[in-house]
């Protein structure tokens, strides 16, 4: 994985802007700690930071190759990602006469673009965000992977387009001011820590949507979707479906275990991470490789404060040991204490360039930092719950009937946190309703579906296109902030396309959430793990965390210069804080984020506004 940035400018000679390009590129150093490269022409400037995973000795970027049929006109590529079907593409291109100088997938991608142009994206299996400049056509082409695992932001101005893997690269340009308008505030206070697809939060910032590509030349900017979820009839029975799921997942894991640097898996003892680890162990055995290394995260004294509930029925510790013993992995337990989690809230903001999932982000940042000491690549189980229907809201009638996103049910609470002036300006409940209506209007229902199937298809679509991106963004930004590449096998588009069209009664085979996935994994995992009830990414249950973030936030609100004052109702926040331990159960966002995370999010907001010197345009 890497970081990319650059800009196209029709009014400035960019060969004179090397210093600015260097500054933009260096903001992405943590994403690519191994090497740096830039390329400039009159109208195009490209920068790249490299994390070496495949063929570390070669593959420097920006990478240049002649355009098809020419020894003069160049195509120049900057690329962030991994192509899991690179061997097949390479073989096909060699058959067409291409010769390769490296063993890296960067060269495969560049030759693929030279041969097939924009249509090349439809041939790619992987996670990626890239930009190609065609000297002959004076056109920039950018594309992002189908599920949006890799980020790509841009800002278009008169006669100019700026882009970067993260907003910080664009913000490093001296002509860009760190500004936030009403719509950006609505994203942060109403939708956040999720985001509306394509929204960059910062004023005039956008994120290229998953499965989309962009063209920019002197005629202007054009975008198109090259992939989206489609509804089709499912013709297989339960046994056949389980067999197909097993085959797709096995193939995906095998492809994603290819690396020239140390690789590991994240292991919680739950269904998803245990499945990936078991498949990795099988692959390593078949390839006569060493034992798989696994990592888990927990918190000091969490066992003393854990209280079981529907969404978190038991702690991970015993299950991690169960799988570690069963698979004989080399396991690395990682543990953090409350002061570390509080301190890391700021590092998480710097990684994301905006407030995020509070301690859920901070703990992942710390976890990835520890993993990076032993490995450069990790496999993680993100997306299985969105794709297979594992979250409780897939199975609760109130969530299924709610006329809003099931992770944003507390609209009244959110509105009450805002200052009266901002509440009037943003109209939070209307803003949320509009975003929900937009999402529902996209759902590709299958003709003839009954109401139950339509409802479950809608829930699946909302989870894949609106909730899953939040977790993928979190995983990318926290891991890449420490130079760790995390791969997410459940996001293979072949698997997603297939599972999206499995009827709900088959998805819930055996009357269990993710029942078809469990059936597909029979014989791979021990039965007690296979049928363990879902438990989410672990968070701290230590009351000291609530006390710490609540106290810090109240201290900030006591400061008249606190930048939160124009935005929030301080009296209402103090009222919630005064509720004591009861505030631990505030239903703020999703099922992991309650009172402590709300206070931490507002702390992150305060730090972000100050550190980035955000100018509010209201």
Automatic annotation (TrEMBL):
- List the catalytic activities from the record: L-aspartate + L-glutamine + ATP + H2O = L-asparagine + L-glutamate + AMP + diphosphate + H(+)
Annotated pathway: Amino-acid biosynthesis; L-asparagine biosynthesis; L-asparagine from L-aspartate (L-Gln route): step 1/1
Name the source's superkingdom.
Answer: Bacteria
Primary enzyme class: ligase
Q: What's a Gene Ontology MF term here?
A: asparagine synthase (glutamine-hydrolyzing) activity
Cross-referenced Gene3D superfamilies: Glutamine Phosphoribosylpyrophosphate, subunit 1, domain 1, HUPs
Q: Which InterPro entries match?
A: Asn_synth_AEB, Asn_synthase, ASN_synthetase/amidase, AsnB_N, GATase_2_dom, Ntn_hydrolases_N, Rossmann-like_a/b/a_fold
Task: Please state the Enzyme Commission number of this protein.
Answer: 6.3.5.4
Q: Name one Pfam family in it.
A: GATase_7
UniProt keyword annotations, A-Z: Amino-acid biosynthesis, Asparagine biosynthesis, ATP-binding, Glutamine amidotransferase, Ligase, Nucleotide-binding
Annotated ranges, domain Glutamine amidotransferase type-2: 2-219
Protein family: Belongs to the asparagine synthetase family.
Annotated protein name in UniProt: asparagine synthase (glutamine-hydrolyzing)
Q: What is the organism lineage in this UniProt record?
A: Bacteria, Bacillati, Bacillota, Bacilli, Bacillales
Gene that specifies this protein: asnB
């Amino acid at each position: 994985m890497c970081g990319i940035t650059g800009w196209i400018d029709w009014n400035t000679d960019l060969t004179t802007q090397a210093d600015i390009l260097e500054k933009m590129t260096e903001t992405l150093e943590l994403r690519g700690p191994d090497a740096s490269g830039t390329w400039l022409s009159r109208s195009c400037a490209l920068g790249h930071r490299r994390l070496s995973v495949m063929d570390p000795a070669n593959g420097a970027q920006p990478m240049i190759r002649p355009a098809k049929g020419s020894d003069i006109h160049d195509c120049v590529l900057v690329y962030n990602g991994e192509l899991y079907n690179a061997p097949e593409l390479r073989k096909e291109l060699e058959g067409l006469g291409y010769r390769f100088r490296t063993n890296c997938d960067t060269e495969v991608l560049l030759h693929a673009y030279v041969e097939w142009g924009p249509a090349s994206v439809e041939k790619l299996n992987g996670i990626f965000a890239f930009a190609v400049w065609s000297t002959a056509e004076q056109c920039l082409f950018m594309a992002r992977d189908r599920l949006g695992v890799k980020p790509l932001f841009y800002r278009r101005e008169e006669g100019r387009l700026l882009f970067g893997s993260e907003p910080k690269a664009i913000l490093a340009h001296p002509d860009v001011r760190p500004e936030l308008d009403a719509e950006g505030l609505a994203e942060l206070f109403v939708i956040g820590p999720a985001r509306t697809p394509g929204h960059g939060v910062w004023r005039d910032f956008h994120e290229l949507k998953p499965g989309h590509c962009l063209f920019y030349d002197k005629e202007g900017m054009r975008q198109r979707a090259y992939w989206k979820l489609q509804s089709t009839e499912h013709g297989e029975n339960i046994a056949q479906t389980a067999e197909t799921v097993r085959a797709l997942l096995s193939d995906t894991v095998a492809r994603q275990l290819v690396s020239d640097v140390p690789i590991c898996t994240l292991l919680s003892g739950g269904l998803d991470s245990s499945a990936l680890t078991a498949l990795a162990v099988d692959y390593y055995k078949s390839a006569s490789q060493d034992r798989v290394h696994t990592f888990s995260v927990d918190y000091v004294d969490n066992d003393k404060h854990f209280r079981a509930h529907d969404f978190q029925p038991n702690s991970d510790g015993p299950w991690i040991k169960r799988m570690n013993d069963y698979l004989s992995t080399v396991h690395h337990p990682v543990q953090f204490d409350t002061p570390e989690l509080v301190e890391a809230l700021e590092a998480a903001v710097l990684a994301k360039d905006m407030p995020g999932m509070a301690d859920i982000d901070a703990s992942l940042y710390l976890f990835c930092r520890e993993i990076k000491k032993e490995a450069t690549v990790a496999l993680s189980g993100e997306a299985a719950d969105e794709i297979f229907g594992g979250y409780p809201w897939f199975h609760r009638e109130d969530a299924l009937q709610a006329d809003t996103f099931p992770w944003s049910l507390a609209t009244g609470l959110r509105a009450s946190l805002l200052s009266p002036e901002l509440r009037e300006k943003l109209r939070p409940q209307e803003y949320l309703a509009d975003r929900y209506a937009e999402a529902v209007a996209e759902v590709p229902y299958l003709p003839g579906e009954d109401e139950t199937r339509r409802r479950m298809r809608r829930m699946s679509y909302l989870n894949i296109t609106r909730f899953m991106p939040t977790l993928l963004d979190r995983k990318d930004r926290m891991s890449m902030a420490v130079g760790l590449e995390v791969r997410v096998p459940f996001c293979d588009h072949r698997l997603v396309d297939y599972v999206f069209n499995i009827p709900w009664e088959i998805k819930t085979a055996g009357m269990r959430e993710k029942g078809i996935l469990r059936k597909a994994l029979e014989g791979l995992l021990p039965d007690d793990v296979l049928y363990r009830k879902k438990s989410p990414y672990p968070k701290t249950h230590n009351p000291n965390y609530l006390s710490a973030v609540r106290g810090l936030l109240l201290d900030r609100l006591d400061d008249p210069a606190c930048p939160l004052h124009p935005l929030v109702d301080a009296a209402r926040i103090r009222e919630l804080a005064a509720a004591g331990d009861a505030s631990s159960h505030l239903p703020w966002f999703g099922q992991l984020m309650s009172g402590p995370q709300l206070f931490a999010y507002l702390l992150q907001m305060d730090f972000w506004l100050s550190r980035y010197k955000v100018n509010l345009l209201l």
